[in-house]
Amino acid sequence: MIYEKEKYVAGSMCDASVKMSVIAAFEIVEDSVTELLGSMHIDGVTAMKKYGAMWVFSKNVMRFYRKPEWLEKLRISCFISGHSKLRMFCDTVISSEAGEKLVSSRVEICGIDLKEGRIRPPETVGFTEDMEHPCPAEDLAFGRFGKEALPVSEEVRVRSTNIDYCSHTNNIEYVRFILNSYPSEKVCSDDIAGIELHYLGQTHEGDLLSIESELTGSLDRFNVRSEGKAVIACRIEWRNEQ
Q1: In the chain, which residues fall in CATH 3.10.129.10?
Q2: Where does 1-142 sit in CATH, by number?
Q3: Which of 52, 95, 120, 195 shows the greatest Cβ crowding within 10 Å of its Cβ?
Q4: Phi, psi angles (nearest 5°) of residue 115
């Protein structure tokens, strides 16, 4: 099945360029995946209550083609594009009212057993193959990241408003921490072509996070660590160089 909805770019979704922010795009993707699973009755809340598990994002790769303007109408499509033994993949496409592709995303999600903390096959968390729409939006392959440490650029403390309903740091908060490495002028004047994040661990309220970065101006790399343990690997590709 394909979950579809429409919305417009509200003021709260805009950055200083008066266009839809990267954070807003991540929020649309997260909400769309949640709503897609909700329409199939396998959403995160149902997973906890019925299956003793929770869904977690393990990877997300996004491509950005154009930043939509304030009040521009958006069309959003989201569907399960594939699965493996221990993973499920959800594609989201954000388009203009005229059908122009603006943003595309592929999210890899895993079902985690609440008692044992192990990854469970999607079939044990309510997924069935007839839920799948095996027609990927485009080639959004996940890449590989090195494990080497990068220079520490900042430390941030996880606060109460960074926590989601699973009691750990929300996926989008890491994007916010990373994007705060840039001045607003760059985020608004330069176009991000793509972002890929691998979620390697969980953090909780009160944890101190080290943001590591290597900024080249075209393909920037980031790590986020907690007590020396990697929890996020990220790279950001810029369309324009300063």
Answers
A1: 1-142, 143-242
A2: 3.10.129.10
A3: 195
A4: -90, -45
